[in-house]
Amino acid sequence: MAKTLVIGAFGQIGSELVPALRAKYGRENIIAVDIREPHPPEEMEPYEICDATDKGEIESLIVHNQVDTVYHLASLLSASGEKNPDNAWRLNVKSLKIVLDLAVKHKLKKVFWPSSIAAFGPTTPRVNTPQHTILEPTTMYGVTKVSGELLCQYYHHKYGLDVRSLRYPGLISYKAPPGGGTTDYAVGIFYDALQKGKYECFVRPDTILPMMYMDDAIEGTIKLMEAPVEKIAVRTSYNLAAISFSAAELAAEVKKHLPKFTCTYVPDARQKIADSWPQSVDDSQARKDWGWKHTYGVAEMTTIMIKELKKKLGIRK
Q1: Which of 120, 206, 216, 294 has the greatest CB tally within 10 Å of its CB?
Q2: Active-site residue among 71, 141, 174, 213?
Q3: Do 117 and 232 fall into the same domain?
């Protein structure tokens, strides 16, 4: 059986996508790859250490393992990308082009690459953002996502490559810690609420952003990749949505579980990024084309996050 390569496997998405793919297709058929070692390592075995920007290393893995599908997840996120724009371009765009070129050369069956709501910008309609709309981001992360979307579409039209993509909203998970993104307040709030009883939020209380519980994101990713090719009408990146809420609304939901919890708001540079992104996204095309639907609302997500983080952090009360 041909195998699947997951590049950037130990990040926020990959650390949950890899186990889901292995459960579905067999552990031996999913090759986890990252530039760093996982922690704890045994959860991601077997795995390979590899630089996503090294074409020779990636090609060797594809050829040696008879890979026919690649999930290319390696990326530097929004706030981190603003601190190092050159590195964001190198990792987010150079590595994608390497994967696309190798996919054409070795006639791979499918490629998945994640885009983001960061592809939108302050000139984009902020409420119910359409599938086809203005893409004028003001962050390097957003610039790399628009560039990547256009590359994916180009390789499909020019070479017939079956490359698929999703514009993820903010993703919330208890398994991976915050990773340098603007929406990461919605993860950090749970850690600090449980460990400190308080949280200093880096966006205003009225900041509304599209969000999604990670289980929905993993389900949507696999569903997209399993959809028949004739169902895929968008070759840039599909809008994907679940829930939208303000920072204050999430804090209030956390307080229902932890009555002594307090949240203060000290907006930093990430506020400007958040203000350039949508408050809600229209994902009707994904729902129509390949049957996307989400499961988790804010209340369900909050209950799970607190329950599972208590286990992870060893908090018994």
Answers
A1: 120
A2: 141
A3: yes
